[in-house]
Batch of 2 targets.
Target 1
Amino acid sequence: MNAWIRLIGGGILLFFMPLTIGGIADLFAERSGVLCMCVEGIMVGGAFFGVLMIRLFAETMGVWPLLALSIVVSMIAGLVIGLLHGFAAIHLKAEQNISSTAINNFVPALTMLISKSVFGTDNFTYSSNKFIIPKVPVLGDIPVIGPLFFQGAYATTYIGIVLVIILWFILYKTRFGLQLRSTGENPQASDSVGISVYQMRYAAMAIAGAMAGLAGFTYILTTSYVFMGSVYGYGFLALSIVSLGQWKPSGIMLGALLFGAIGVISSTYSVIPVLQNLPIPGVFYSMLPYIITLIVVAVTPNAHNAPAVCGEPYDKSKR
Amino acid sequence: MLKKILMAKRDYSGVLSSLLAIFIGLLVGFLAMLVVKPSAALSGLRLLVTGGFFNGLTTFGSVFFYATPIVLCGLGDAFAFKASIFNIGGPGQMHVGALVAVWVTCNIGLGAPLSTIIGLLCGALAGALWALIPALLNAYKRVNIIITTIMMNYIGMYLAVDILKKSNIFDNTKNQSINVPRDLRVARMGLDKLFVGSAIDCGFFIAVIIAIILWFILEKTTFGYEIKAVGKNRDAADYAGIDAKKTIVLSVLISGALIGLGGGFMYLGWAGKYLLGSNTQLSEGFTGIAVTMLANNNPIACIFSGFFLAYLTQSGSYMQAVGFAPEIVKVISAVVIYCSALSRLVSEYLRRKKLDYLGREQKGDLR
């Protein structure tokens, strides 16, 4: 029983965490009024530079300093890429869909270029088992919840949970968060009371980039052992979760839970006897997350909760 | 010099921003090479510029072959883009189109030219079909087409690979599609006599004809006007009596058809390209976006920008020799897309500059 809880529950947690972090990243960007379709690209960047550190320093560094280094590097990489999009979207008033697409194409190509130059192949492996915490003392002994959350989970999962709580607090309980959200609703009004719209949006993109970078790193570290220049569309899944969750952290987490379950079915159907015996071809399970995303975005009602000016460059002279 | 260009009757600001985008793209490519391997960066850059003639006309002829799918893909993207629809489902539409085109051509058994023609048309149809769901969702529910097309890319890739593996056009030992019989490939019309040993076929010239037709549709017909009106402002067009939903669906379907056709040309050609049995997306579908961005969504200009990017891709395939991955070309084309996103800034600057010149001239008149 415990083994099953760990397989299914732990699996859901693996997909849940990067999707939640990615969703929160996009939430920050969109709440400030910047359309960030490039979460996918930023995630690839964070994932690449994070696991690159693990690959390069696996022998020379201790386990926890190495993890800390990789997380910081992946967040910095994400931040830089996020600001690249921010620069185009905020200062240069670019078409944000296009600059996002540019980022989504640029980052994977760059990672492939570096990986081929460094390792000679377009993919490289890394080991992530040592970042698993076998059992948290005391908490791990609680029935059901223990094996679900506190046995054999990756350290990144806990870091992610803490960060999500902090970010929720920043966005909804601080002055900075209120100002940030105001620039996504009515930037002219924010400007008139002395809030710098540009500054707020850059701050939002910096946070969004760093978080998306971390999301990519978490995803690739925990669900794979080889990096092939892609996070397989999970950045876009995070985007669809944001609109499914009506631009609210609680909604995003619920959406991530749903997609986490789908992710588990899609990746472990071959070991789950019930699914294996169904007369459904295996390829269907591979396509499942993408099909569900399509259905979700199709049936999500038009959001009245969405930021009012998302995707519009700020024009001071407009009212 | 700048003044002369700006004061000309025709508007050259689009051309200027495209040239700027190419320049910045090559610059970033060069910088990336400097970072990766400084000693070989210069020879890498030289190879990038001259690689299209690496083996003389043989290589140059093959550039025509590689240009065909990405020109068609660029045309497709441009057509949807005119209606302000950002179809980035190129990889999926191309994959599905290519699979259907190759399968039909190999299995229909109607002899040399007819099988290929029907195969290509079926490929176009499949590409259009693959664009249908995102088109409907965008037209009727205003669902962001970037998310839906990306999802269709993944679904299309998994489905196409799975069907390929179960079909009779799959070579199990090589894990790729079979050799298309020589007489069923796209006709070469003696062009291989001119470019000996190259992969050239008549595909590029069909793409040119299609580009001209698209230009005609966009500039000289009611349908084209409707597309552009919807692209400028969907609600205003709807209010003015244009069926915006129908226009959007049609433009995306045509876009998908062109991209599917491009896929057909790529795998029914002479370059020895095979549909793979591994789960990889067709990156040519993304190159199409760079093609249309560089061309400012102008169908005629797509021919040149597509040819240019195909030339770079061909050069990129030789980059391994000096120690760089061919991905350098993808980096360049992504930078080109990024720069195109900034084209508003460039044209704004040029417009201001032009007004500046105009103002100065008028003052001169008064004196």
Target 2
Amino acid sequence: MADLEIRGLTRVFPGGVRALDNLDLHIRDGEFFALLGPSGCGKTTLLRSIAGLERPDAGQILIGGRDVTRLPPGARDLAMVFQDYALYPHMTVAENIAYPLKIRRVGRKDRRQTAESVGASLQIKGGMLDRRPGQLSGGQQQRVALARAIAYRPRVFLFDEPLSNLDARLRLEARTFLKQLQRDLGVTTVYVTHDQAEALALADRMAVMERGHIRQLDTPSNCFLRPANTFVASFIGSTPMNLLSATVRDGGCDVAGQRLALPEIVRGQVQSGEAVVLGMRPEYADVSLVEVPEGLSGPVRVLENLGVDSLVTIEIGDLRVQATTPEDCVPALGDRVWLVPDQRRLLVYRADDGERIAVGPAAPFAETTVDAGSL
Amino acid sequence: MGPDAAMPETAPGAPSAAAITARRLVGRLAFYTFVVVVGAFFALPMLWLAFAPFDAHPTLAAHPPTEFTLGNFPDLLKNPYALPSLLNSLVLSLATMALVVATAAPAAYALSRVRIPGRDVLLYVLLLFSSVVSGTAAMVPIFLLVFELGLINTQAGVVLVLAGGLIPAGIFMLKDFVDSMPTSYEESARVFGASPFQILRDIVLPHARPGLAVIGVWVFVNVWSNFLIPFILTRDPGKMPAAVVIYNFYSEGGQANLRLISSFGLLYSIPVVVLYLVVNRRYGFRFYGGLKG
């Protein structure tokens, strides 16, 4: 087992695109770490640099304290699972799983034994071992790719969107399976994904990346509840966060011509007339059918059924704001409703740089109120 | 749609259903006639090759043997150059095949995987050369070149010239096969610590095997049937391949000896057919695609 340290890593592609820009990162031993970001943010370049498949222009990569920056991929003691699984079509499943051992010149008998024991732990057994990857389902192929990585007994696992080729239902099952597996093996894991739900569900900590920079490095619950900037705020959450332009005035703020109270913690840090962006998750606002004086009010324009609750789009002035309502109090289309944000979870960002106001110990709510069940 | 918008059964002046059927029938008839004529054009020489070698008095017409005989073959064996020429053809074809596959495969692999500026231009220039090098236009320079190298009247000279003409197109075709292989295959092996040689042996070659088989057969058939290059470069009848020797089967009066030509033609075509069948059975000319979930 090993920790992973990235120091000042920079990668500039021909043409001047800075895929990684002087990036620092420390991934702890045994940690499940997710790299999250939109396509082109540099997350895959970072993963491939760790693997040694990409040569950084500057910076260092240390695995377990050993500088591996100049080492070839095979000398870094890590296993990678690719998005397309990279199973060899001309080899059987057993040969695929044991291929890392063949490279190390382990005997045929021992290879078969390892393939059988590792395969069995991932429900790859019996006739499946002698089939070709092409004869397996997507979920089975994915498990074979995992088994091959495990058979190598690496110090670090690298996953490059390993679930993105599975259909939605299977993906959820594989996700649970993967999390359990990583817990059991305790191997440091770096997991690249563009799916925020996957990162939130799997990771112990995660980095949200944008254009070669890490925009937030934190636990999934902190990234969800307290996004450090509007980029992370808009990227995380299955229903996108409302980001409303507002102007501070007299301890409150004006939003689309209406008044809204500011969270207490923020009031001392903003000046009257300052432009801010309010971040409000649809889940963290109440929709009321009767008038609430401190709420934002407007007519319902769109209703979307999400199953347990409904997503209501409300027109407030020239803004469109979304909020979820429980199944027993869904307004009708066109109804005038009042929207009351949860003051403890209302986030305030500076309009100029998009950074959150009131970072640090004076967080808008205590750590104990973080409800993991709501993620 | 209102009732007035409904289409009448037949618009005025439109052809009746019977006329349409008749026209369709004529069209079909014309099409099948055309197909039969084209088919016969290609089938007739085959029929001739099947019948004439067993005819005691073959003519240029394809018809079942008027007088069945197997005597043409012993007569053919009496010709001192017939059998050795087939052997020469085999040597030339196999040697060229080995040379082309052995050089085109690594070149194709490199050109597929290494990004160098002007790579695509290089490939097309290669392809252009391919048709020029062993073509009629280059006959004189080729002769001079081989003469200067002292390779006139040697098998090696023929093999080198033919290989030179086939390698570029071979690279071009093989590159497509290698391109179809996801780079993640090699990358995953590299992460597991495989050396370039291990990657080539365990992953790239097995994956490219159908492609190598296709190129091998293609080279073999090309060399086997090539007339011009060995005709120019070999002097000694004992070193000539079958394609050149068949040119010498004339009687003293200058008449084509159809008995020898037909029976030799049959022997000459058998290896190519066998090769195709063997390779097709072994590799099926199928392709491994990348795996997707």
